[in-house]
Design a protein that fits this description.
alpha+beta; four-stranded antiparallel beta sheet; 44% helix; translocase; 405 residues; three-stranded antiparallel beta sheet; 2 domains; Cytochrome-c3 Hydrogenase, chain B; 14% strand
């Protein structure tokens, strides 16, 4: 990779080298033996620790971090401007790519905004199928981080277990949509097509298999004393910083912020699923450290599997019917504006849609979860050593394309 570079190296004073009688002191650390100054270190933009094209400009006093500046934009595609020159059917393709681990959830936010603007009522069968697919996509997202985060602290085995479970669920997602990453299964007014014959049985079997085998992966990670030592008490995020920076999703809930749109502002079928006696529940922790963030992610997989199982049972009881509505050849949204937000796997995804009555949006502003989540990093790392920076960064669960858009 070769992406770790220094802009300014540590300099030794003449007194420290024994070439003169004078002595110099540390600028920050103090001491009479060695004269030094802060070092600026670039991690990235292409580096194994950054999960993508992200650059961190950190200021070091020895191994101690005294400042951190995330430098974003290396993957910027100008998606919001591209939205403005494509019609409401075409923007779905663009929207599902900024967070490639949550493609279905990204599509969902766009179509919900357009449906709200146009007043389209989605068939009930499509509502429950969307909810099922959204939760399966959430599990796929979380399994990726459940397997990859231990890599940050030197454990390679968990990712093989996690990908076994991902493949089990990917098979049913690929069967219904034809895609492994970019599903393109949402449509304005519903879904692309109905569920294949026997698909619900295969989904139920996949959910059961993942639920049975998941404890093997959990024991492998949470039973590891090295993992616990590297994450407990590291990168503690207070609740007030969560609110100040707009942090959301598992990261916010690990700091005790009890907020989840699926329960607090329900959409799709979540109002029923999170009602009293339903399978839905909001997972929170109070520690706010890297371990708590990972623990919330782990438990949310179990909750999403329960929600998906409930959706399967409901779909089995629904009578046959349409999964979309017939749209005009040219779909235009009336003049106005709306804001639709969803509880995506990484946090709050918001879509602010402004229409002037044309077939393309006049403005479609994307509020991505990863941008706010990574923005809080400079508050977490000062005082930590470089090794802890990697553990903290990995626990923020971001996708670089979701930061840059």
């Amino acid at each position: 990779m070769g992406a770790v570079t220094t802009e300014r190296i540590v300099s030794l004073g003449a007194g420290a080298a024994g070439l003169s009688g004078g002595t110099e002191r540390y600028e920050r650390g103090g001491g009479d033996e060695l004269a030094t100054q802060d070092m600026i270190l670039n991690i990235g933009p292409q580096h194994p620790a950054t999960h993508g094209v992200l650059r961190l400009r950190i200021t070091l006093d020895g191994e101690r971090i005294v400042g951190c500046e995330p430098v974003v934009g290396y993957m910027h595609r100008g998606a919001e401007k591209l939205f403005e020159v494509r019609d409401y059917r075409q923007i779905i393709m663009l929207a599902n790519r900024h967070d490639w681990l949550s493609a279905f959830a990204n599509e969902l936010g766009v179509v919900l905004a357009v449906e709200r603007m146009t007043g389209i009522e989605v068939p009930v069968r499509a509502v429950w199928a969307r909810t099922l697919l959204a939760e399966l996509n959430r599990v796929l997202n979380h399994l990726m981080f459940l397997g990859s985060y231990p890599l940050e602290v030197g454990a390679i085995t968990p990712i093989f277990y996690a990908f076994r479970e991902r493949e089990t669920l990917q098979q049913v997602m690929e069967e219904i949509s034809g895609g492994r990453m970019h599903y393109m299964f949402n449509r304005v007014g519903g879904l692309k097509e109905d569920l294949p014959a026997g698909w619900l049985d295969r989904v139920d079997a996949a959910i059961g298999a993942v639920a049975r085998r998941l404890p093997d992966l959990e024991d492998l990670i949470f039973g590891n004393e090295i993992f616990r030592a590297r994450t407990r008490g590291v990168g503690v995020l207070p609740a007030d910083l969560v609110h100040s920076y707009g942090v959301s999703g598992p990261i916010a809930r690990a700091s005790g912020v009890d907020f989840d749109l699926r329960r607090d502002e329900p959409y799709l079928a979540y109002g029923e699923l999170f009602a009293a006696g339903g399978p839905g529940r909001v997972v929170t922790r109070t520690e706010g450290d890297s371990f708590a963030r990972f623990d919330v992610l782990r438990e949310q997989i179990h909750v999403s599997l329960d929600l998906a199982r409930a959706c399967v049972e409901r779909l089995r009881t629904l009578p046959p019917g349409p999964v979309n509505v017939r749209l005009p050849k040219i779909l235009k949204a009336p003049e106005g504006q709306t804001y639709a937000w969803t509880e995506s796997p990484l946090g709050l995804n918001g879509y602010y849609l402004v229409s002037r009555g044309e077939k393309t949006p006049w403005r479609l502003k994307l509020r991505s979860a990863s941008f706010n989540n990574i923005a809080v990093l400079p508050e977490l790392v000062p005082g930590c050593v470089v090794a802890d920076l990697v553990a903290i960064l990995g626990s923020l669960f971001f996708v670089v394309g979701d930061i840059d858009k």
